[in-house]
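Field: sequence (string)
Field: structure_tokens (string)

Example rows 1 and 2, in order.
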Amino acid sequence: MSLPKEDRIYTYNDYLSWPEDVRVEIIDGRLYMQAAPSRIHQEILSELHRQLANYLVGKACKVYPAPFEVVLYLDEEDKDDSRNVFEPDITIVCDTSKLDDAGCKGAPNMVIEILSPSTGRKDKLEKFNKYEQAGVQEYWIVEPQEKMVSVFTLEESQNYGRPSLYSDEEEIQVSIFDDLRIDLKTVFSY
């Protein structure tokens, strides 16, 4: 079994043929290798996941930290031929019919991406556009260097509006849950 090369167009079927330890994402058929996350990245991920998981105990929605694949179907693509396969840092799914053993097939309700120097452009532009197009209701971009979070919510027009910006001294009201607030002091307390 050969490792993927970055010079061709790939689909979800290709992704399924690769060894499980190959960490990649596919955006519009283009391959992006994933670097190992930093310690600070993992501390932020762990604290966000802890707060979300504690809230979701006993509720229908489920939260998943990376690695957890999300396959987005755009423009009525055949499911096996999707050219968009992501591994968000945190994924929340409320429609359990979208779940299988590998991850989520279709748009999750919420996605959180924690930026690193190598992923900033991809997360802010390419993934942003795909999450919006697929109908992800809430998309967070966490910037560890600035200790800031940009929150995008899907509007009635099916587009993300202007982001709400939060600093490390604030709490975020999660829009998909009326009674959940995330404390950023603890998220950025590394």
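Row 2 begins here:
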Amino acid sequence: MAKLQQLSFLMCAVVHLVAGVPFLKASNSGGTGRVDTHIHAIPLSYSKVLVAAGLTDIPTWSLSATKSFLQETGASIGILSISAPGVSVVGVGDEARSLARSLNVEMASYLSDKNSTAAKLGFFGTLPDWQDVEGTLAELDYLYTEQKLCNGVAIFTTYGGKLLGDPAYAPIWARLQKYKALIFIHPAGLDVVPQLIGPGLPQYVIDFLWTTTRTATDLVMTGTLSAAPDVDVILAHAGGALPYAGTRAIASLLAPSVADLVPIDIAEAQRQFGRFYYDTALSTSTAQLDGMLDFAGAAQVGFGSDFPYAPTQVVDRVADALKQFQLLNPRGPLLANPVLRRNSLKLLNKHSLGRLFR
């Protein structure tokens, strides 16, 4: 927990300096009716397997604390998901399948919780490690034909050293297309050398941004996204570096040596990159917000907090930077709170299995 607290302090300082504005608690800024699509649950069953795997920087979590957080930050809807490393922490096979199922059952139980709160809850379903293709297909079938309660599924940027557009995962994408699924892509560890930067910075400080950028580009350049036209994808943390690097990837197709490697042309690549949605979790500097507006457009952006991995004081400062952009930047109204809310509601309800948010 000490490392997590140090990271939280660092994030607070960075956001404060980059924004160049005084701190203002989100809880004091009035209700916004936010829709938070990037908020994590850490049920006890999941926490126990993380600890057993030697992972110690695990935030304290409870459903009641999550609901309090949503109220304090003016959110009316929160979509829960399991963060990295997910059920892959117990491997590939029956144990991971069982853990995914139990987490989906537990997350669904939160929807009927009667504790008083102004916020409504939803969740992105948990899947087995994609290396277990059959197990993943079975869990998708359960979520979409039996349980019918999730708002989409949460997946990670890599599985078994493979990016999401790897041909081995084509059956999974075909099933996601069948169910016209909404997908939330969250970064996981990146297999690079050296693995850690500087004195041992955890990968979520910098490398999470690169793995999101890599897998999003992979989905486009392999034609995977083109083959799943009814699937929508939310990228965490403003898409990592994608708003900056995406135009480079598109322009690379002007070079015959690159174009010959890719099954789609430059016009199709531009269309597919334009399909991604983005959340603002830990990503509200002027450069990041301008980047999303330039590369994706305002209609593709929604709010995200990353609670509880980002503690309340971090979320407050990140939200404050967003508010200052909204108020002081000429393009601020494009990302006004009602716009972000409308974007998220439209996307969630497009993929609803029967539970509509209002």
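free_text_note (row 2): The CA atoms of residues 190 and 211 lie 6 Å apart.
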